[in-house]
Write a structure and sequence with these properties.
mainly alpha, 69% helix
Length: 340
């Protein structure tokens, strides 16, 4: 019985994100805590490693496809890896008004994204399922944007201040959309557990899942903004603000910010797949895992095509656009509250 209990524990970490050690009667409370930690650490390492490895590749695909759409040759797929290595090898210059805050913002930006990777299923289970919940996930996703605000505020230049003002307005209008999508899943499942919500929970209504269908449309229409790509990259806007909040950054700190931005594309794509397109995830490994990453790849291509074929919105146009989507999302939340 003890051996069987341990086998079920190993299977459950990949299926649901945390081992069930209740069958192992010989293990005390301290032993269960240690076993949980021993299973969480490698799971987080695998998810974080996948995100950090795949993120520059997705950026390379985005650049290459954009070049093809615009009838250019474009850089090689591995160019983002070289760019990051070049920036990391440069001298770390301090040019802002608060160097300590600048360094902290750069490290926290990437660290937050890596932490979120442990709360998101990357084709397998959720390593930190028993440690965090939906509320923590919302906080961490918001904190990614706060790191950008801190970076621009610490830089102190005119372009940086304009950039963070745009970023702040965008966050106020945009961040509630993903929170509403997650809360709709919470209402349908009556649970804040990540393994319950990040499993297509928006479609778990008693009748036809009107709220889930509406939120799919809302999230698709706002997805470019979540990953800070054209036409909603108004806070950076290289042609008018020269990268806004990141204008005063170079070398390793700029590499960390760029790496975090690349990773956000993978993280948000994985969240979208888990929340709205979960079908096929229950297939045996590696079929379900490959299917998951295929869906992530389709999202990356969609982001690329939209970015390559649309012009950047003005900040007032973007805010009006987000306000309309927010009203629709609130209507979906009301429907979810009534079981639809």
């Amino acid at each position: 019985m003890r051996v069987q209990g341990r086998i079920r524990s190993r299977e459950s970490i990949w299926a649901g994100g945390e081992p069930d050690l209740s069958a192992d009667e010989g293990v005390g409370a301290t032993g269960r805590v240690v076993m949980n930690i021993l299973w969480i650490i490698p799971g987080v390492a695998v998810n974080a490693g996948l995100v950090l490895l795949v993120a520059p590749l997705c950026e390379g695909v985005l650049r290459k496809v954009t070049a093809v759409v615009q009838s250019r040759r474009g850089p090689p797929l591995c160019q983002p890896y070289f760019d990051l290595l070049k920036l990391l090898a440069k001298e770390d210059l301090e040019s802002g008004e608060a160097p300590v805050v600048q360094r902290a913002a750069a490290y926290l930006s990437l660290a937050t994204v890596v932490t979120v990777a442990g709360l998101v299923p990357m084709g397998l289970g959720i390593p930190m399922n028993g440690v965090g919940d939906v509320i923590l996930l919302i906080y961490l996703l918001t904190f990614c944007g706060i790191c950008t605000l801190l970076a621009g505020l610490a830089a102190g230049s005119t372009y940086s201040i304009i950039g963070i003002s745009r970023e702040m307005m965008t966050m106020i209008a945009l961040e509630p959309l993903f929170a509403i999508a997650l809360l709709i899943g919470v209402l349908h499942t009556q649970s804040f557990r990540l393994d319950a919500v990040l499993k297509g929970s928006v479609y778990s209504a008693d009748g036809f899942p009107w709220s889930g269908v509406i939120m799919v449309g809302v999230m698709l229409l706002s997805f470019q903004a979540f990953v800070q790509r054209v036409p909603f990259d108004t806070s950076e806007a290289e042609t008018e603000l020269m990268e806004g909040p990141l204008m005063e950054y170079s070398g390793p700190k700029l590499a960390l910010f760029k790496y975090a931005q690349m990773a956000r594309l993978v993280i948000h794509s994985a969240l979208f797949v888990a929340l709205f397109v979960p079908w096929g995830s229950a297939f045996v490994f590696p079929v379900g895992w490959l299917l998951f990453w295929a869906k992530v790849g389709v999202l990356v291509l969609l982001v690329t095509l939209v970015a390559a074929t649309h012009a950047r919105y003005r900040i007032d146009q973007a805010l009006h656009y987000f306000a309309g989507l927010l009203l629709v999302a609130l209507a979906a939340l009301v429907l979810a509250a009534y079981g639809y």
